[in-house]
Amino acid sequence: MKAIRDYCAYGAAQVVGFIVCRLPVDTALGLGRAIGLIGYYLDRKHKAMAYANLKIAFAKTKKPSEIKRIVKKIFQNYGENIIELLRVPVIKRLGAEKFVKLEGRENVDEALKKNKGLILLAMHFGSWEMSNLMSVLTGHPYRVVAKPQTRFTKLDELLNSLRLHSGSVVIARGRGTREIIESLRKNEIIGMVVDQGGRDGALVKFFGRLASMSVGAIKMGIKYDVPICFSIIIRDKNSQHRLVIHPALELIKTGDLERDVISNLNKVISLMENFITKYPSEYMWFYKIWKYSRESTAVILNDGKAGHLRQSQAVAETIKTALAERGIECDVQTVDVCFKSRLSEKMIAFLSFVSHPFFCQGRLRYLKWFLTRKSFLDIASVKADFVVSCGSAAAPVNFFLSRDYRAKSVSILKPGILGFRRFDLVVLPQHDNPKNKRIRGRVIYAQGAPNLINKAYLKEQVRLLLNRFSHLQSGKETKVGILLGGDTKKHFIGEAQIKMLIGQVKNACEQNDADILITTSRRTPPEIENILQREIKNHPRCRMLILANRSNIPEAVGGILGLCDILVVSGDSVSMVSEAATSGKDVIVFPPLKKRKSFWRKDKHDLFIENLHNRGYIVLSKEKDVGEVIASMARKKIKTKILNDNDVILEAAREVI
User: Fold this and answer.
1) What is the pLDDT of residue 541?
2) Domain count, the chain
3) Which of 175, 222, 536, 539 has a 20 to 30 A CA-CA distance from 229?
4) Is residue 12 part of a domain?
5) What's the pTM?
């Protein structure tokens, strides 16, 4: 089949070449633009690749609609380039100077005066194959280093024959080093490209991100003192081109070859970026430019819920760990998802549900219909390799953004009506699928909510808390921490419930000689905070009371998790319960009250807490029995297990990247 495809491509190129060589130049180029336009609509893979690359390069300077227009122009230019390559015999017969104007001829002559040859360093820009007319334009022998097309050998033969027609001699890249050196000794010109270094290239910053660039030309220039001139071919109008030869580079030679190569490459990259920025549609954006980069970016979409943000941060950090194993540095950024209204949130969910993934790329502008202006601009300007979101509200934005960049998408919890197959990875708590229904897509199950809790994190949080509250460094050996949530969509904490809980904790701590540390959340109602103020703030056992709505102490939860031996947690927050169970401390969870009782099925919070209780990660207790459980834990009669989902999530992250 490979051979058949090769011969078909070869035959098609021969036929098209026969036709275009007999057409007027403007008609032939019009045909090329038409072919490019057909490719734009049919070649999904390269269209998506070009758009994603342009987004990475110009996310902060060009709108999505502008990038989309550039991609279309790229395909049209590429079609023209193919036609011009097939018309090389006609161009040479009519006179190359009628189609290509050479600028910088004096730089070529000056470089060749050294009698050490000349390397013309170019990139895949404009109609770069027209540069092979260099021999005709200058009268000097010209050889071009080209990568063989191993998949299409017959087509490669045709391509090389056309290069020979243009007056150049082809040297196979990677196999012609001796031939290159011999040609340079004969004072000939060698054409080489710099922008596809592959595995053996050097990593340098290209539009702000490390990309692999070819080092062969720079190394030869340094080692053999060969002049290197940067060259670029620019399409002026229709069939007219300018081939610009820059003065020879002043190569940096300090004796440290590796450092010198990077320094000199940076000079070339600066020239490349200037031309690409000015003529973005002339560059060939169809390959994985940053494939070998050791840099990556994970974008967290924050829907404004603290628990969701912490879960997203935990998964993003796991992705960062998995990338670090491969020597890739990951920058984690957070952007806020703010909808114009509740209706906007519902409408974007429906739009993402009915949209095919292919048609989402290049349509990021749709988000401005649903998001606030600042939120839209922030999201449209980020560069993403991974997009992480938690919950159904941010899932549609994740869907659009990840498709725009061809980034990996990770959703935590059920992504609403979108479905699981729209994402590269879904982290789903087991209680979200209680009937164990078969789910299609890459889904992993976690026993709790993903979180940032580990020994290093707890140690740092304790340090920060002790710096703020130095008196906590002394006190009783045993400490009991209380983490209180508040009202949710379906649950709340009652005033009588808190009074009972506080009474139980005070008695248990007095009997077992323990200190009390308490923090609330921003969801905690003022009534509950007032009860805490009256009932326990001035109690001798209470060493710390933080009311989150009155004082923002970021390290409060982490510090309490690290300092305390026993934790009492309200069951309204899946995230908070999961963090407590992961901390390695003995955990008591008291269930919140329900705003509305269901007679048909258990609430998922109930299922979550019961599952952890049954597996021994927590002790589920009514508030009236909390004192007794604390006493048993203080006497080591009850011990809870440590919850750990990190290994499961890490293995999934490795597979995704």
Assistant:
1) 92
2) 4
3) 175
4) yes
5) 0.81
